[in-house]
Amino acid sequence: MNNIIVYCEFEDGKVADVSLELLTKGRSLANQLGCKLEALIIGKDLKNAPSQVFPYGADVVYLADDARLEHYQTLPHSSIVIKLFQEQQPQIAFMGATTVGRDLGPRVSSALHSGLTADCTNLEIGPHTDAKSGKEYQNLLYQIRPAFGGNIIATIVNPECRPQMATVREGVMRKEIFDANHKGEIVNLDVNKYVKAEDFVVSIIERHIEKSKINIKNSPIIVAGGYGVGSKENFQLLFDLANAISAEVGASRAAVDAGFVEHERQIGQTGVTVRPKLYIACGISGQIQHIAGMQESSMIISINNDPEAPINKIADYVIVGNVEDVLPKMIKYYKQNSK
């Protein structure tokens, strides 16, 4: 009762990274609130799933294990989540802001009349005073997310309705093991009590998922370009450097909007959050929206013809110059010294 529940996505025998990130954050919030952290996993052959989430601090794991639930389907998953939330009455519930979470979250919040804040980039606990009534609330969930195209950061609270629900972007929270030896309670749900036969009116006959060829989030080295790179043709220099040093290519929103590279490479509040060992920023001015997505990089090198560019303030090393002059030299010297 009144605990924190994280809906954990499960595919190909593995709990999704975004779910483990939410458990990490959920453990911290549960400690603040003095409540339990619980996980809900729906799928097929879940016997190894609890061992994946217990180290991240889950106190209770609900398992809905059924062959019919091997792949995500809107109706049966919604039915299970809605009924479990009605029974357990969590004060807070989290889902990843993935294709699954974007479909499931609104359906659950609508059925429970709870409200939902989508695409959060941070979550905190704190007090709130209603400006009209003067009523004071304690220990509310601050649901923090960019708004108006990333130009402001909004903090949203839900004083009355429960659960306080939020979907959270992948990569914006750290994934850290709470205790490798942590164990909790496993609750096996009777799926037939949570779903109806008509929930399976749609059956999956054949399923194809094309894996993304771009893996910015997990790359240890990223070469990122901004609008200052100048053109799509100049961006090829970033790809040449990335190929030389086994890196991935990223971009700021301005570069993506200009058509220099595809959206999948966008880094920042409206893109992917990354934490590489080395981040090489080429022609990136360093607007707050972009910095929020890469500021935790272990080392930052800025290449910019503006010595006063904001990103230079957080960079470990600054190279003042034009990208088209600097990158060919970097590629040349790296190849000479890596033989």
Shape type: globular
Average predicted local confidence, pLDDT: 90
Quickly count the domains: 2
Query: What is the CATH first-level class name of the largest domain?
Result: Alpha Beta
**CATH superfamily name of the largest domain?**
HUPs
Supply database-style keywords.
about 350 residues, alpha/beta, Rossmann fold, 9 helices, about 25% helix
Description:
This protein is of the alpha/beta class and 339 residues long. The chain folds into two domains: 4-200, 3-Layer(aba) Sandwich (Rossmann fold), CATH 3.40.50; 221-338, 3-Layer(aba) Sandwich (Rossmann fold). The chain has nine helices and 17 strands. It has helices at 17-33, 49-53, 74-88, 99-112, 191-194, 232-245, 253-257, 288-291, 323-337; strands spanning 4-8, 10-11, 14-15, 37-43, 60-65, 92-96, 117-120, 122-129, 136-147, 152-156, 164-168, 185-188, 221-225, 248-251, 278-282, 299-304, 317-320. The chain has a seven-stranded parallel beta sheet with strand order 7-11-6-1-4-5-12, sandwiched between helices. Strand 15, helix 8 (288-291) and strand 16 (299-304) form a beta-alpha-beta unit. Helix 3 packs across helix 4 (99-112) and helix 6 packs parallel to helix 9. The protein is globular, with a radius of gyration of 22 Å. The model has no long low-confidence stretch (mean pLDDT 90).
